[in-house]
């Protein structure tokens, strides 16, 4: 693996996430309905847990992935990119007809703020109580606060008018950054995010969702479950998601084709964010045997592999040998 200097923001920062929204599943059958449609086990949302999950097509291809929070016994929020909310309503809506549940976009009901610090407790002086365990949440007078990991939290602010004064308070302990910086941090965590450009292109295994607890193989049936389980127990994924560095005058779009040194298609870009002047980091789904040959098809610019915070079993031996 080539050594490349990476851009990691060490100082505390906060940012508004205007391109992130919420889809609410509401009604007495909300949990039952979702249990039959998504890869995570909704029963584990008890005790204010947050789950990473996905909805798959009958062929086991990921339509969307999300973080789920059970706000009320009959209300579950799915955190998604705002530009895929309508597709999420359509893809889930096809199966909700006979359930006592409904789908409702709540993207304008909350202002979503990302918070980063190596000492997240420093934000408690402004926000009050904060969750201390990763993938847990609490309900506060200001809104929902949930913790992604040791250094990242999100606040779903209930009052849009409170955004400006809260920003002034947060600026006393952290710098204001852009949504790009938040997206870069998620790329460095190795967590993919499906957008309209990558809709229904990949299996959960190819997105590494099985490596980051995004799939529960004990929960029972859901749409696409048979294909996903067969690949897990009997097959072997030949592609996974890898993190790369790119030097380019322009960012390629999600879904852009990646080829090997012979010009053969080997994968696609999933997510990308700027890490500096003409510098980018990205997540791309690539065939395991060609991870060190990746380059953009359109320009021929080469991608340099960067480490992920978790292991990809099928590629470890090859990567470590180089």
CATH architecture annotation of the largest domain: 2-Layer Sandwich
The largest β sheet comes out as: 6 strands, mixed
Cα gyration radius (Å):
20 Å
Distinct helical segment count: 7
Q: What fraction of the residues are assigned to beta strands by DSSP? A: 25-35%
Order of helices and strands: EEHEEEHEEHEEEHEHHEEEEEEH
Percent helix: 10-25%
Please indicate the count of domains. 2
CATH superfamily membership of the largest domain: Probable tRNA modification gtpase trme, domain 1
Main sheet strand line-up: 8-9-10-7-1-11
What low-confidence regions span 5 or more consecutive residues with pLDDT below 50?
Answer: 315-322
Q: Specify the overall morphology.
A: globular
**Structural class, from secondary structure content?**
alpha+beta
Give the mean pLDDT.
Answer: 93
Calculate the terminal CA-CA distance, rounded to whole Å. Answer: 6 Å
**At the first level of CATH, what is the class of the largest domain?**
Alpha Beta
Protein name: Aminomethyltransferase folate-binding domain-containing protein
InterPro entries: GcvT/YgfZ_C, YgfZ/GCV_T_CS, YgfZ/GcvT
Organism: Cellvibrio japonicus (strain Ueda107) (Pseudomonas fluorescens subsp. cellulosa)
GO biological process, one term: iron-sulfur cluster assembly
């Amino acid at each position: 693996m080539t050594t490349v200097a990476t851009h990691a923001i060490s100082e505390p920062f906060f940012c508004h996430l205007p391109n992130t929204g919420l889809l609410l599943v509401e009604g007495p059958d909300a949990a039952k309905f979702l249990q039959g449609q998504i890869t995570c086990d909704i029963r584990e949302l008890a005790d204010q847990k947050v789950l990473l999950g996905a909805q798959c097509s009958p062929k086991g291809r990921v339509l969307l992935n999300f973080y789920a929070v059970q706000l009320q016994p009959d209300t579950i929020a799915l955190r998604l990119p705002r530009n895929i909310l309508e597709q999420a309503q359509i893809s889930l809506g096809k199966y909700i007809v006979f359930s006592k549940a409904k789908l409702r976009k709540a993207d304008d009901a909350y202002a979503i703020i990302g918070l980063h610090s190596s000492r997240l407790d420093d934000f408690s002086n402004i926000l009050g109580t904060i969750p201390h365990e990763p993938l847990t949440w609490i309900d506060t007078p200001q809104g929902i606060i949930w913790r992604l990991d040791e250094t990242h939290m999100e606040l779903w602010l209930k009052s849009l008018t409170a955004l400006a004064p809260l920003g002034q308070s947060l600026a006393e302990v952290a710098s204001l950054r852009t949504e790009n910086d938040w997206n870069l941090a998620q790329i460095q965590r190795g967590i993919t995010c499906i957008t309209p450009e990558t809709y229904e292109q990949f299996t959960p295994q190819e997105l590494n969702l099985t490596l980051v607890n995004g799939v529960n193989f004990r929960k029972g049936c859901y749409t696409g479950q048979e294909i996903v389980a067969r690949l897990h127990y009997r097959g072997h994924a030949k592609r996974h998601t890898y993190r790369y560095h790119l030097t380019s005058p322009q960012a390629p779009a999600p879904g852009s084709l990646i080829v090997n040194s012979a010009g053969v298609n080997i994968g696609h870009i999933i997510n990308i964010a700027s890490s500096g002047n003409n510098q980018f980091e990205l997540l791309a789904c690539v065939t395991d045997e060609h991870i060190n040959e990746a380059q953009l098809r359109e320009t021929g610019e080469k991608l340099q592999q960067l480490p992920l915070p978790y292991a990809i079993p099928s590629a470890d031996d090859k990567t470590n040998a180089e």
